[in-house]
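User: Let's play a game. I give you a shape written as tokens, and you guess the letters that built it. Ready? Here's round one.
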């Protein structure tokens, strides 16, 4: 190098430098996208339309609202679509009975998304054990601080719109689509459609009243916005609400609403889904803010009973008890049956020297075989059947090629894409 000048790189060197940068950028982008989509899995602690546990969703292009929560949602796609359908989520309330501007309506939609989808709302559940004078009330919240600026903006957007309030003047006093009460002389969705149509700004005088009167004490108007939640945030960004009130504990799970640790999800047909099905880490329930309490349960997994019986046979039974140097065919049959029963399933196991955990048979079965083998050694049951068991242990041991193949294939995908860019 000469001061003030640079030596041009040969074309191939420049291309290789570009290739390295492209691969690095692609890898970072891929990792960031995967991390954002994974989100975290935490108990939702509210029981209206809420899921048991927040986890990543894939709502598709036909969903246009609540998208900021898609990577960690306490709501389902079905719930979100009801929010979007003229806010018909709650008892078919006719939010637009007297007409409603899009500027105003967006705030009601954002509130519904926040309440149904944001896992942090569960920290503010009103009834500790969902017991409200003998009724099961796991949906109500109390005193959740929301940024004052948001309430002020909500008031400004709605102050000139008309609503058909009932006598209480709260959201829950809005008539439903099917009611005939308060019918007025005007056309549908006009300010005369109901006799009770009144201007929003006449019912609520400011943002404070929107926060603390319209929602019946569920929320508060918080001027210190460093200690307040945001009802919405940009799609694709981290949820800012996860970073505040981190020391505030979730309430205990309510009786009848216990969370299944191994199968925290539920599909549209009510079938339980495993942690891996809903993209939760295997140890999601051990994280500090998971919201799991002593009422959480671990359901019996599909192949646990078969594995328990098989281990008993391996250690104390006759199916894997050799006669001299001959192992009976029943030993291999036993382990073949285990493989068939547990293929693609989850199971519970205790690694040698470890504590009980659970995982997928296809990837974690070596730990089970090693534990069973260790118990045979401890029980002094080592014999000619060890050769059969060793064959299964060897088959369960990941090969070096298998260990590196997946990341290598991912890197090669980025390399091919980078080469195409350079070409």
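Assistant: Ready! My guess for every position:
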């Amino acid at each position: 190098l000469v001061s003030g000048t640079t030596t041009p790189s040969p074309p191939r060197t420049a291309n290789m430098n570009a290739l390295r940068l492209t691969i690095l950028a692609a890898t970072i982008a891929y990792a960031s996208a995967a991390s954002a989509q994974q989100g975290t899995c935490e108990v939702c602690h509210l029981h209206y339309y809420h899921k048991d546990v927040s986890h990543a969703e894939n709502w598709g292009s036909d969903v246009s609202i609540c998208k900021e929560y898609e990577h960690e949602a306490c709501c389902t796609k079905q719930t979100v679509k009801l929010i979007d359908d003229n806010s018909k989520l709650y008892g078919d309330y006719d939010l637009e009975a007297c007409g409603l501007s899009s500027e105003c309506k967006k705030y009601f939609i954002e509130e519904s998304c926040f309440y149904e989808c944001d896992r942090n709302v569960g920290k503010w559940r009103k009834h500790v054990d969902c017991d409200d004078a003998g009724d099961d009330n796991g949906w109500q919240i109390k005193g959740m601080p929301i940024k004052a600026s948001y309430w002020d903006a909500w008031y400004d957007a709605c102050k000139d719109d008309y609503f058909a309030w009932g006598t209480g003047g709260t959201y829950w006093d809005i008539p439903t689509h099917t009611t005939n009460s308060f019918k007025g002389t005007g056309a549908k969705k006009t300010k005369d459609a109901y006799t009770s149509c009144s201007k929003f700004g006449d019912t609520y005088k400011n943002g404070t009243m929107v926060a603390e009167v319209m929602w019946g004490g569920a929320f508060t108007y918080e001027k210190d916005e460093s200690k307040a939640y945001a009802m919405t945030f940009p799609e694709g960004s981290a949820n800012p609400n996860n970073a505040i009130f981190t020391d505030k504990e979730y309430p205990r799970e309510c009786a009848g609403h216990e969370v299944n640790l191994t199968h925290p999800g539920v599909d549209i047909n009510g079938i339980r889904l495993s942690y891996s099905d809903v993209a939760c880490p295997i140890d999601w329930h051990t994280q500090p803010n998971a919201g799991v309490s002593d009422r959480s349960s671990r359901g019996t997994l599909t192949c646990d009973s078969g594995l328990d019986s098989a281990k008993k046979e391996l250690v104390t039974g006759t199916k894997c008890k050799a006669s001299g140097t001959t192992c009976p065919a029943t030993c291999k049959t036993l382990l073949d049956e285990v493989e068939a029963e547990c293929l693609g399933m989850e199971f519970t196991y205790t690694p040698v020297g470890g504590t009980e955990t659970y995982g997928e048979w296809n990837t974690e079965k070596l730990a089970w075989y090693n534990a069973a083998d260790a118990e045979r050694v401890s029980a002094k049951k080592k014999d000619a059947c060890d050769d059969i068991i060793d064959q299964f242990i060897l088959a369960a041991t990941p090969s070096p090629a298998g260990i590196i193949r997946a990341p290598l294939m991912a890197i090669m995908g980025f390399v091919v894409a980078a080469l195409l860019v350079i070409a």
